[in-house]
Amino acid sequence: MAVLPSLVLRGRSTRSPAARRLPSPEPAGLNSVVDCAVYVDGSRLPGRWTHGEAVAEVRRRGAGFVWIGLHEPTEDDIKGVAETFELHELAVEDAVHAHQRPKLERYDDTLFMVLKTVRYVTEPAGQAGEVVEGGEMMVFLGRDFVVTVRHGSHSGLAGMRRALEADPEHLASGPAVVLHAIADQVVDSYLAVGAVMESAIDEMETKVFAPKTTVDAEQIYLLKREVMELRRAVKPLGTPLRRLADGYTPLVPEEVRSYFRNVEDHLTKVSEQVAGFDELLTTLVDAALAKITLRQSSDMRKITSWAAIISVPTMIAGIYGMNFDYMPELHFQYSYPVVLLVILTSCLTLYRTFRRNGWL
């Protein structure tokens, strides 16, 4: 993706005439750059910037910070950014290859944070169930810069960037505000996914306990798999947020730490909700299997009852079909109707007995 032009012009620029010209586009190879901006006193400076020009401008002024956003960069894409901001090679490797668990690490004067992003999506037509689509967000936080690396087709930051630019007073607190806004947006997405999953689980619970309705256990396992996907994103994030709220690093000023405490509270709510989902789905699996077992047992009782009823005429017919010469009642005039009456009476008696005991 090419570098996007400046979205909003805020405040009067104090740059020199030479600096007011539009800088050249990003160097060849940085195709993953979504946006690169310079913020001074919470306001975005106009123009297009390369990462090198942006950090040079901030350090020349001695104020403000750079925010550069990348989407699924390759090693070549991120190499120049890593050299400019002196990012640690291990963190850069994690940012390129992704597939990391949520974590917070400190490399010298730079923080590296990984967050899992999720989205609840419906599968294409013809496939049953819904799935949680996952992605990742990596954030490099320094004294005068923040670099965001996004993996996945969802959880874009353009809307969040515009919202922050609309509040320059808050953005003036520094790049830690961007880290908080990202964490807040990610945790809000957990809440949204949790709400949709709660509705799906409630619907599944209604089906499981509805009379004369059979629910395939595979559908419940699909929901349980989605809960596990959300749990892998939510549970490990609690410790990083707590460390940021407790003053783990001077890169997060005191006035921003309280915001991280608020995000941690929301994450705790999601974590408890996910734990409840897991327990409820386990109960639903047991209930569905018990219902299937009960229905199979009922079917077996019916089969056994009818087999017992049919065995009466089968036994009598088998005895009289042996054709012995001296069998009783062979020459009695009313033998045939008597035998039919005995068969019918026996079958009706068995039928009423099984019916009264609930087998039929």
UniProtKB/TrEMBL annotation:
The keyword Ribosomal protein does not apply. It comes from Actinoalloteichus fjordicus. It catalyses: Mg(2+)(in) = Mg(2+)(out). The lineage of its organism: Bacteria, Bacillati, Actinomycetota, Actinomycetes, Pseudonocardiales. Its main location: membrane. Belongs to the CorA metal ion transporter (MIT) (TC 1.A.35) family. Mediates influx of magnesium ions. Alternates between open and closed states. Activated by low cytoplasmic Mg(2+) levels. Inactive when cytoplasmic Mg(2+) levels are high. It is found in: Cell membrane. It is a multi-pass membrane protein. The keyword Cell membrane applies. InterPro entries: CorA_cytoplasmic_dom, CorA_TM1_TM2, MgTranspt_CorA/ZnTranspt_ZntB. GO terms for cellular component: plasma membrane. This is Mg2+/Co2+ transporter. Keywords: Cell membrane, Ion transport, Magnesium, Membrane, Transmembrane, Transmembrane helix, Transport.
